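User: structure tokens for this one?
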Amino acid sequence: MVRLLIAALLIPLGLDLYMPVPEDNPITADNIALGRRLFNDPRLSRDGTVACASCHDADHAFANSERVARGVFGRSGRRNVPALINRGWGRSFSWDGRATTLEEQVLRPIEDPQEMDLSIDDAAARVGVSKTLIARALATYIRSIMSGNAPYDRHVNGDRSALSEEAQAGLVLFRGKANCNACHVGPTLTDEKFHNTGVAWVSSSFSDEGRSIVSGRSEDRGAFKTPTLRDVERSAPYMHDGSLGSLEDVIDYYDRGGNQHFLLDPEVLPLGLTRADKSALSAFLRSLTGTVTK
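Assistant:
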């Protein structure tokens, strides 16, 4: 991987001007255009009804409003659809980090029986391009999906009128009492690491083994990758299973210290937030809504 200034992309305010891009898949306007067409092409699914865009809706930060993913023939997945914004800066992909490159990740939903359920060879034959080009073009298009220039970005770049007083109070809480920035850090507001926040702990067992499925480590049971908080207002419902329907639900969940169990991340503790604190934190999180490139 190399870190290059992407001349083909206009990086929005607030994001890192340098993006990791594979040497064998440079970002070009042609690959972005091809990737966009493939992203919206339902021929990549077995029954011809589901495109990548069917689950990753541009109006929902390239996530959607369903609790879990819905695939061909009405099949239901187990996990919430993750937002695709700013994934060009990602270090691993999927909730459990099973893919280490976008080129690898973009092919997985096509072949997944619960999603698009089509072999890559059949997909390539249908759309008339090679498997390699499908992977490279889709990955390139996803790298072009960015969100920045939010009120928060304008605030930290000197525009003190960009955030309301309540949102500014929420920023102080985010960095302090609420401890959100223990995991949600950097320009993309995610540490790209895996944490057990207790959501998968239900009735004294794990409903989803999470990261341990990939790592094989028992201590990773119930751990999931930190999602970005950019455009979080648009990407409800929340958590890996879509079990929390609103930002207020998420704030309440963390305020009470999550679901207590033996593998809970030590950063997840009762917060003692007041009603005013919760309102301010919600206002700040909404200030992370930016301009999404499509």
